[in-house]
Prior knowledge:
Elements: H1 2-35, E1 53-57, E2 74-82, E3 90-100, H2 106-139
Helix pairs in contact: 1-2
Amino acid sequence: MSSALDRLKHLTAKITSYELARKENLKALEALYEKLHINEKVATFQDLFAFKAMNLSGLSLQSENLGAIKEKKYVQIIAITYDNTSKVKNKNSSLGYFGRSEKIDVTLKNEIVAFVLRWRFEKSFMTLEHYHDMINTLKA
Length: 140
């Protein structure tokens, strides 16, 4: 009985930590949304999550060299929408242009990388909730 209770306590602690991390992430993401002037391209914060994906040019998002500068590139936050009714299915939109990668300020670089990672973090939670709800409709 004790091991089952211990597993339940561990699981509860893990879920609680994810929810706290998610709440903190959203707060930090919204601050970056303002600071990086993404609000000039996307009217409301919640509209950010209408995009299917978000990427970055000019800087690496790979875990082994996160934030590394890609030489002779321009730093941009790229949002991707998908429309299966149009001829061109994927559409890329620049949410922010920040100049040449070699000339970017280190603090700004880190904020840009953090913005994309924080957006992906929240989007993954939204996707998880979406599929959880879909599975639950099958049970009904």
